[in-house]
Design a protein that fits this description.
The chain is of the alpha+beta class. It is about 50% helix and about 20% strand.
Length: about 200
């Protein structure tokens, strides 16, 4: 039982109870495991998209930084998402967010992990030491989401703005690179605005 409380205190909820030094019936152990799974989902996963959330992102980055010097993040949001909510309703907006996450999860390689930040913002973490430049990654993201989505019988075209940043453990923390990626994303939005595209 002490292991149970120790894991919970450390935020480690990816475990199951198989046996205990105290007497616990099998139904009791099963119930505890269900409670642990529920708690893990509430803390680390977004309720709408079922994607890992901001808390899970920071935990993942912390774990990666212990054994990797090559970490990049790609922060993106949906251009004109407010207009989508206004035109089709918030339910359709929620369905679109879920569909975007689902499509990306189906095609992204294993070294790329997707998280939902908040609203229509998502982050992808890259931990692959391959020499793939950020422009190539951004182009692939745009291409994946280029095909329109069918939401409640409506065809919705999705365009995104993407910002990127690379982590340097000697001089940065995770909040700094997220802010850098956000600034880079904002720059792309401003470029689109100058070109007359929708970007809100």
């Amino acid at each position: 039982m002490s292991t149970l409380f120790s894991n919970i205190e450390q935020g480690n909820l990816s475990f199951r109870i198989e046996k205990s030094n105290f007497y616990l019936s099998r139904p009791c152990i099963n119930q505890l495991n269900r409670m642990i799974q529920t708690l893990n989902k509430k803390i680390y996963y977004d309720n709408l998209t079922q994607l890992p959330n901001r808390v899970a992102l920071l935990k993942h980055l912390d774990e990666l930084s212990e054994h990797s010097d090559d970490i990049s993040i790609y922060l993106f949001d949906i251009d004109g998402f407010k207009s989508i909510n206004d035109n089709y309703g918030h339910h359709a907006g929620d369905e679109l967010l879920f569909a975007v996450g689902k499509r990306l999860n189906e095609v992204l390689p294993k070294h790329l992990k997707l998280f939902r930040m908040a609203g229509d913002e998502f982050i992808i973490v890259s931990s692959n030491p391959q020499n793939i430049d950020s422009t190539t990654h951004k182009s692939k993201l745009h291409a994946i989401l280029e095909e329109p989505f069918n939401i409640d019988g409506n065809t919705i075209q999705v365009n995104i703005s993407v910002g990127s940043a690379k982590y340097d453990k000697t001089s940065q923390d995770f909040f700094t690179i997220i802010k850098q990626a956000d600034t880079d994303m904002y720059t792309e939005k401003m470029t689109k605005k100058k070109d007359g595209d929708r970007y809100d």
